[in-house]
Amino acid sequence: MSVVQYKKYIWLVDTIRSAGRITREEISRKWVSSRYNDNHEPGIPEASFHRYRRDVEELFDIEIACNRTTGEYYIADSDINGKTKQWLLSQFAVSQSLDTSRELRDRILYEPIPEGTEYLTTFVNAMRDNRWVCVTHLRFDSKDEPHIFHLAPLCLKVFKQRWYVLGFIEETDGSHVIPESEWRIYALDRIKKVEPIDKTFSLPKDFDAKAYFSNYYGVFCGEKYKPQLIRARFSKDDAPYVRSLPLHHSQQEVEPCIFEWFVAPTFDFIQQLRTHGADVEILAPESLRNAFIKEAQEVLKMYQK
Fold first, then answer.
1. How many whole angstroms from its chain centre is CA 198?
2. Distance separating alpha carbons of residues 118 and 191, to the nearest angstrom
3. CB–CB of 66/23 below 8 Å?
4. CA–CA separation, 84 vs 194, rounded Å?
5. Domain count, the chain
6. Are residues 291 and 199 in the same domain?
7. Lowest mean pLDDT among 59-73, 231-245, 286-300
């Protein structure tokens, strides 16, 4: 399925969501002036409209319902404000605004997105069908040829402008559940090629992507990283930023400017704390505090040279 087709689906959802309730005729009138009406149709054909409705529900879990009395369509999904859907629709809303107001393009700035987003459609389809894909991957530190392997994609995650796919690469006949210790996560911008293959896998029983990442910040995860209580004091200048944008869902402000998290001290989380420089003091655990002290001493030594 092409990216343009996905945009048509999101256009339909955003059009109905923005209106609240809208008739089939009003949707068709808006479709006439839509940039995604590449065939210059006088309206969305009846068969296409209902196919889009079915696809939207299957792909995004968003139900487009109809009031039979008034003939109006509306978004029936009670979870339309869920993070994934909210992000999806907000991204498209900005795109739509730019398309209709081209003079604003140079006044709205984005952070650059690495390569790899062109594979999102392939991974989404593979996850929907529980289908293996053949991946050609090249590590940052690799000087050799890319690694080619089969991957069973479990979920997708975006972190700091990069998309990642979590999955396992061990071949299976569907009867064996791969243990979590054997799962892997790959950045899509390091993937050079993805192709679906004629082989399906069984989704691990009770797999919950949100729960899997709940004790982590970022994408470093796995059984070797154990969550623990981390406490830090921030300066009065930095504390409001941490307070308004929590680093992790477990964050609590136990005293003024002192925050706690129950999270695994992975590279991603520690790196985020480091961005505050001298405006953060690690209070616990002692091992992490000592690591920050040692690093500060090494930095001072480097500058003294």
1. 27
2. 10
3. no
4. 23
5. 3
6. no
7. 59-73
Strands (E), 178-304: 183-187, 191-200, 228-234, 252-255, 258-263, 280-284
In angstroms, the CA 225 to CA 229 distance is 13
Rounded-to-integer distance, Cα 285 and Cα 121, Å: 42
H-only helix segments in the chain: 3-19, 24-32, 46-60, 83-100, 120-129, 209-212, 239-244, 267-274, 286-304
Instruction: Give the bridge partners for 152, in sequence order.
Output: 168
**Cα–Cα distance measured from residue 279 to residue 233, given in angstroms and rounded to the nearest whole number:** 8
Measure the CA–CA gap between 241 and 250, rounded to whole angstroms. Answer: 16
CB proximity list for 16: less than 8 A, separation 6 or greater: 22, 27, 64, 73, 74, 75
Domain interval for residue 208: 117-212
Give the predicted TM-score (pTM) of the model. Answer: 0.68
Question: String of b and e for 173-189 (b: at least 16 CB within 10 Å)?
Answer: eeeeebeeeebebbbbb
Q: What is the DSSP letter of 111?
A: -
CATH number of the domain that 131 lies in? 2.30.30
For residue 201, give every residue at least 6 positions away whose Cβ sits within 8 Å of its Cβ, in sequence order, or none. 130, 131, 132, 152, 172, 174
The model's pLDDT over 61-96, given as tens digits with 9 standing for 90+, comes to 788 899 989 999 998 864 544 555 565 655 555 555
